[in-house]
């Protein structure tokens, strides 16, 4: 059955960029996810949604990616756009071109811009805001009427297309009215051990700052020293207060799992070392960067018991296991738990293509609700 879209609410998203979910009101996020759900339904029904034919969807990645790159390409292709994805380090940014200049140069040809820039605290989100400023100022100065939204494909603060995909997946899992599906649900975002690399903070920050806004009781669990940045923590507390949900922090994984309806155990780096990395990166000190990484992994290794296994899952209320992937199997999660949820986490990942489609379509297609309704 078609998802009913509110024409005015949907049209209110026209021209928007997505740099953090915090920039968006809860009603706007609901409208965006309604579009995503409808685009998923149309896609699964084999209906063509090529509303943006012959347009260029350009994305720059300053870090590795499997899922988000393919979701960007898949979303663009389903909308009739031409996706192009470049390695950010191959651009002239590495030769000192500013983010504003880069935005202007790429935006003058493109019709949408995606950026992943997640490795260094304090850099990624501000880079994206500068890119957006560069595009906007160029378009304005040259009298170009095109709408070129910027989509954050993961930064140092947020991973909004991931968190929104997670929210869409949780709403589907819990069922009922999407707007109230999370009300009263106990959702745990937990640190988990990883030996592979010091992972960005943006996924847990994005998850806790988004899910608290929809009435969930969110628990953040991590060992001492694995705090998140103050700003998204404040957003989570504010979101919980406004939505009637709650937000707490514990340092015990068992306590966090007990009674949970959904658990999201994944690793991130220790805050002090992630902060130390900023200065080393600024002066291009590769040896210091390597040393910090080794110390981060040694720190992680003090907490190898922070694993999502069958014993911990048994503490929950038959919780749904979530992970943004890739997961360190045998470290973040036991092979048995991962096997049990292998399809579920793939379905969770698949939601991102529809979130990105919704973002591009809502930002660029005037009166989108009517256009989608006409496709039925
Ligand atoms: N979860 C996620 O963003 O996956 P990728 O890093 O593979 O894009």
Automatic annotation (TrEMBL):
Keywords carried by this UniProt record: Transferase
SUPFAM superfamilies: Aspartate/ornithine carbamoyltransferase
Pfam families with a match to the protein in the record: OTCace, OTCace_N
Protein name: Unannotated protein
Domain called Aspartate/ornithine carbamoyltransferase carbamoyl-P binding: residue spans: 16-172
MF terms in GO: amino acid binding; ornithine carbamoyltransferase activity
Residue ranges annotated for the Aspartate/ornithine carbamoyltransferase Asp/Orn-binding domain, each copy included: 207-362
A GO biological process held by the record: L-arginine biosynthetic process via ornithine
């Amino acid at each position: 059955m078609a998802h009913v879209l509110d024409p005015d609410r949907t049209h209110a998203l026209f021209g928007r960029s997505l740099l953090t979910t915090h920039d968006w009101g809860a009603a706007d996020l609901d409208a965006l996810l309604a579009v995503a759900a409808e685009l998923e339904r149309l896609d699964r029904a084999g209906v063509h949604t090529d509303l943006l034919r012959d347009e260029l969807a350009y994305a720059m990645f300053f870090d590795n990616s499997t899922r988000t790159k393919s979701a960007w390409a898949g979303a663009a292709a389903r909308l009739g756009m031409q996706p192009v994805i470049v390695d950010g380090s191959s651009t002239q940014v590495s030769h000192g071109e500013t983010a504003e200049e880069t935005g202007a140069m790429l935006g003058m040809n493109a019709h949408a811009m995606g950026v992943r820039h997640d490795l260094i605290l304090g850099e990624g989100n501000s880079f994206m805001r500068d890119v957006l400023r560069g595009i906007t100022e160029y378009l304005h100065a040259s009298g170009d009427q095109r709408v070129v939204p910027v989509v954050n494909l993961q930064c140092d603060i947020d991973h909004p297309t991931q968190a929104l995909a997670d929210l869409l997946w949780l709403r589907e899992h819990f069922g009922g009215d999407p707007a109230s599906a999370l009300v009263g649900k106990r959702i745990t975002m937990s640190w988990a051990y990883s030996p592979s690399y010091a992972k960005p903070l943006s996924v847990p920050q994005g998850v806790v700052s988004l899910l608290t806004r929809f009435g969930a009781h969110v628990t953040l669990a991590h060992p001492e020293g694995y705090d998140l940045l103050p700003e998204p923590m404040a957003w989570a507390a504010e979101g919980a207060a406004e939505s009637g949900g709650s937000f707490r922090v514990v340092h015990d994984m068992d306590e966090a799992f007990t009674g949970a309806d959904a658990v999201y155990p994944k690793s991130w780096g220790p805050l002090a070392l992630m902060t130390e990395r900023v200065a080393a990166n600024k002066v291009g000190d590769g040896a210091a960067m390597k040393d910090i990484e080794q110390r981060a992994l040694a720190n992680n290794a003090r907490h190898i018991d922070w694993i999502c296994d069958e014993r911990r899952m048994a503490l929950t209320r038959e919780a749904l296991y979530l992970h943004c992937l890739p997961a360190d199997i045998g470290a973040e999660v036991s092979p048995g738990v991962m096997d049990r949820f292998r399809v579920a986490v793939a379905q969770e990942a698949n939601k991102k293509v529809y979130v990105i489609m919704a973002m591009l379509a809502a930002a660029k297609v005037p009166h989108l609700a009517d256009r989608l309704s006409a496709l039925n």
